[in-house]
Amino acid sequence: MSNQTQQNINRRELLFQAGAGFGGIALNALMAQQAQSAAIPDRKSLSPLASKQTHFPATAKSVIFLFMEGGPSHIDLFDPKPELQKLAGKPLPESFKKPITAMGEVNSPLLASKRKWKQHGEAGTWVSDWLPHTATCVDDIAVLRGCWTNGINHAGGVCQMNTCIPLAGRPSLGSWVTYGLGTENESLPAFVVIQDNNGTVVNGPRNWGTAFIPAVYQGTRLNTGKTPISNLYRPEDIFPTQEAGKLDLLAKLNQRHAASRKQQSELDARIESYELAFRMQAAAPEAVDLSQETKETQELYGMDQKETKVYGTNCLLARRMVERGVRFVQLYNGAGSKWDSHSSIEKRHASLCKGMDKCVAGLLKDLKQRGLLDSTLVVWGGEFGRTPMSEKGDGRDHNPTGFTMWMAGGGVKGGQTIGGTDELGLYAVEDRMHVRDIHTSIYHLLGLNNLKLEYRHKGSPERPTLNEGEFMKKLVTG
């Protein structure tokens, strides 16, 4: 064998041995990592957002709350009143208790509904011609006609629908759910809020805030438009290891700062938000990438039409979020109290219904065909309804004493109408559901007992519905 051949053999042996050495280094690192994992508790179990046990078996795993901000008119959408048509133009009958209205127009004449009504589905649920697409889904919907609240204006009404009381200072529905159940995907926010425009929802972030419970459970607002999540992507000149190192250092500094300020949960929430943002860089781009959806799916949500593109996009994002384990998604429609039709209700409501109806129906149909409706509770409604009395001749005032909401999926028996208002639609009179009962029913379907879901604040037990509220059993029994 020549010296040159011997040299080639030695080179091969050297490479083989070096390769084996590198493998040994990787193996040693892996074994060390496994040993470290065995010595330290699972990180997920340490997270305040880790998935938690329910109080009893749940029928729903997640919630999509379709919030029509401003107060949609129940007597023009889901609650037809023949008597209102007969008495149109006359004052409220003396047999009725005089209501307190936001604008004080209690003596205004009654305003007839101009809607055409039909019964739909096997159960014959009444729906007006403003909602032709939702009408095709009524066999999956339980219409709740006996709702009522205390909030007479938008600030109080929106606050109560989100927190159970019309005054500030209580955690939001979504934050209580997140506190009680955690999340099934720690690479995405547990509680997501999306508006349909850049307007300001009454009360702003307080609607998805946490008040006295830790701030880590607050909602994360996503953007409307092409980039739902701002500053998501890492600059190309920054490597993941560099970013991880910076975050580790930042976390240590923040933890040191927070150690002496334990009463300020916002500091822990900020630390968690940085860590979540890092994890989201891997998971979120895929979650918000709607190009993965088929053309047929996008058309189902109305994304191919100008009027329905925005809310349809938000509804599709909501489906993708719950599909990936997000616990609570709240979609505001008409952000900035656009549903508030004190005048020109025909024009205002017609436009809003056209921009929302197909999107909502598309969401229900898509969830159902994917097998997600069984585990996803969809809630539709605003902070209150509208009065049968007119305002400014062609509008309706706020009506907190009687209005309609609906629920679908998550164990709810569809094709039924629960409760009712009087013959003019002013007061809830049958199977009445206060906001506390609505929230209690949502918690119940998620497997949470509203009286056992508790947070200690200043030594006192705080519960989401202030020790009140009853589950509407007809939602599941019919």
From TrEMBL:
This is DUF1501 domain-containing protein. It comes from Gimesia maris. SUPFAM superfamilies: Alkaline phosphatase-like. It comes from the Bacteria. Pfam families: DUF1501 (PF07394). InterPro entries: Alkaline_phosphatase_core_sf, DUF1501, TAT_signal. Transmembrane segments: none annotated. The lineage of its organism: Bacteria, Pseudomonadati, Planctomycetota, Planctomycetia, Planctomycetales. PROSITE patterns: TAT.
